[in-house]
Amino acid sequence: MSPFRRKTRKNTSDEERGVFASPLFSFGGSSYPISQTAASWSEGEPIANDFTAYVHHAYQSVGPVFSCVLARQLILSEARFAFRRFEHGQPGELFGTSALSILEQPWPNGTTGELLARMEQDASLAGNCYLVRRGDRIQRLRPDWVTIVAGSSSDADVADLDVNVLGYLLHPRGDRSAVPLVFTVDEVAHYSPIPDPLAAFRGMSWLTPVLREIQADTAATVHKWKFFENGATPNIVLSSDQTLNQEQAEVMKQRFDTRVGGIDGAYSTVVLGSGVNLQPVGHSFEQMNFKATQGAGETRIAAAAGVPPVIAGFSEGLESATYSNYAQARRRFADGTIRPLWRMAAASLAKLVDVPTGAQLWYDDSDIAFLREDTKDAAEIRNTQALAVQTLISSGFDPDAVIAAVTAGDFSRLAGAHVTSQPQPLGDHKAPIA
């Protein structure tokens, strides 16, 4: 356990700023408390949005939001992690070691897919995912219980220029008045795909820009339910040729609602007394083009999530979907959303894994069904590369140099590798002519 992660007593003078003092922290060759005044500066960055509200009122209550997060989760969770060699600044082959076991089983009965799904869920709903390694397991820190501690060793006038993350505070059960657990920067894998423009180190949920669309979709769903609940007709106005007092009007309304109101009374025959008139007001779903109205909101939510509407199963996407443009949408989703998220997830998790020298933590997407078309394209690329290798070897270049150059896409590596002026038959790899 890190000596830095010990319980600390809150400095009451810093209580309003959310900064905690006591343990010394080494930064820039100097040691100083987390909370400083005058010569150095520090502050906390609590989560920007209301994580609980996003969970209850968006993810668990709004179908389009759940569909977008689910689409991202299901594809992201398909990947496996591996190490990737780097040679001459170029990526090479994938390989594995026992160091990857922490990602293959991040907690008891946990899997790589569940780890990636949790990372996506936190990033979508809170903008941030925090993970720490505790022995042979990975522990998720609930994002709205975490505060990023940032600070500078410079004087107050230039503190904003060299501010850095000093550590992370975990507030037990979200109680910021309780003594927090403190984690160093090296202990926390912080995954935040979308940076918050108003914070130095915090991420932002993709839900934030489309809150109005989410509220509108909720209102439309409630409106649809009320339409059916109140008889599957537009609003009804009852009028009488006679002058009615307030009590008489209420009695007439109550009798009408009792007989034909609600779903059970829908399509019932209405019998009105003499002098009573019935007039529908408002618009039906068809008149107000309800499907297009709600569908446009779903499309904007999908755009913020980076999920093509046809992938999420939204009506606007399905109406224009064909086998051809579905393939284009799938490619857009894979290349424009999923692969960047895999790259950032691997870079974040590398802090929790013993990465071999000369390699990096990467993802292996070779057996993902959703990317089979990409596999076909990759096979065509390899076929083109094989033809290039054949041509270059037949032209007298050293076979090993040819393979390295073609694989890296860097033909400058062939400089000085021309071993003979006589063409060689393919497969006749003789020693270079002296």
Characterise this structure.
With 434 residues, the protein is an alpha+beta fold. It folds into three domains: 1-230 and 282-365, no CATH class; 235-281; 368-434, no CATH class. The protein has helices at residues 51-59, 63-76, 101-104, 112-126, 211-229, 246-260, 290-305, 309-312, 315-319, 323-349, 372-394, 399-408; strands at residues 24-27, 30-33, 41-45, 80-87, 90-95, 129-134, 137-141, 146-152, 164-170, 181-184, 188-191, 235-240, 276-281, 359-364. A four-stranded antiparallel beta sheet has the order 3-8-9-10, with no helix packed on it. A three-stranded antiparallel beta sheet has the order 5-4-14. The radius of gyration is 31 Å and the shape is elongated. The model is unreliable at 1-42 and 429-434 (pLDDT under 50).
Q: Could you give a short description of this structure?
A:
The chain is α+β, with helices and mostly antiparallel strands.
